[in-house]
Amino acid sequence: MNLPFLKKILLSVFITITFQANTIAQTSNYSVGLFADMMMESPGYDTYYGVNGKYDFSKHSAVQAFVGYSNIHITTIGADYIYQIFDKEKSNFNIYGGLGFSGDFYRKTVHVEFGEYSASGKVKMNLFAINPTIGISYHAPIINSSIFAGYKAKYYPFENAVDINFLSVGLRYHF
């Protein structure tokens, strides 16, 4: 067997596998994974890291729940309703939008010194947030996982405050 013929066979096999992998759409309804929400403006650059789970209850609709911790001592717990534009059984690529709620729980020990005096104490604050989100996702059937990236804002209705410009990224495994 000559080398150029072998290269053509290997290229044909690679193209066939790649094409076949791209035509197999997501069929699993359950997925779990890791996420990060990073605020993209100063001075905060808050970053939340955590785990999330998603359940697709139709070809276009899903709910996801998450729990995470941030670099500024906030624990977040929440859930989102997600609407996916494309049928998840026909397309690996999707565009989504949604709305969710979260509880953000701030806890930190503070130590203050002034001259010869010092004091310590715990600072606590509980916040309720409404989280609109939009983004894109891609299901990689070869590894049975989805990657996603999106934009999220956090609106705190009781404080009348908004944290905007969160970049959400993550990876979920489908089972």
UniProtKB/TrEMBL annotation:
Highest taxon above the source species: Bacteria
UniProt xrefs under InterPro entries: OMP/PagP_B-barrel (IPR011250), OMP_Helicobacter (IPR002718)
Keyword field: Signal
One Pfam entry name: HP_OMP
Keyword flag Ubl conjugation: no
N-terminal signal peptide: 1-21
Protein name as catalogued: Outer membrane beta-barrel protein
